[in-house]
Fold this sequence. Notes:
Elements: H1 6-18, H2 30-39, E1 45-47, H3 56-66, E2 71-75, H4 80-88, E3 94-96, H5 101-126, H6 134-144, H7 149-156, H8 160-174, H9 179-190
Parallel strand pairs: 1-2, 2-3
Helix pairs in contact: 2-3, 6-7, 6-8, 7-8
Amino acid sequence: IVEDELIIAESLKRLLINLGHRCVDSADSFLVAENTLKNKFFDLVLLDINLNGKNEGIELGELCNKNGQPFLYISSYSDRDTVLAAKKTKPGGYINKPFTPKEVMIGIEMATINRNVQNQTSLKSAVAHLDLSEREMEVLQCVYKRFLNTEIANDLSISTHTVKYHLKNLYSKFDVTSRVDFLQKLEHMIE
Length: 191
């Protein structure tokens, strides 16, 4: 979350948690946000456009777009010039303040759907050279979506024991020993 108004940032953080998401970082200024975005990758970034009286959120949107980082704007500005400037950065969405929980939920879903489709295609291309079974590919895609083992089992209608079996095979094929290493290697392969 990049938001210079503490009350709104905290409100967004609570809302994300209530929607089943995690807020892993936040920034209240351009410089902090820029540094964070240059050094970390997030599933989605929520950007305020007007930070400390300037349209620095647009610059951050350009940085996100350049780095392939999914983002959406949350702003009280809806004038034509601001919206056109924001549009050029290709955000996943634009939510006007004041916002409702439903608007934020819909914005997040819309902003992440395109990334998921693009990444699934990229993921398949990146691992095409490996000898993965159809089920291993399904498990791999679920892991890439950050599903837990129980969620993978439910999604694929298999037992958690079977999920662990496929993960063991995948870790071996990718020469990793943990889920964190596995995800990092997948992200690197897609880049």
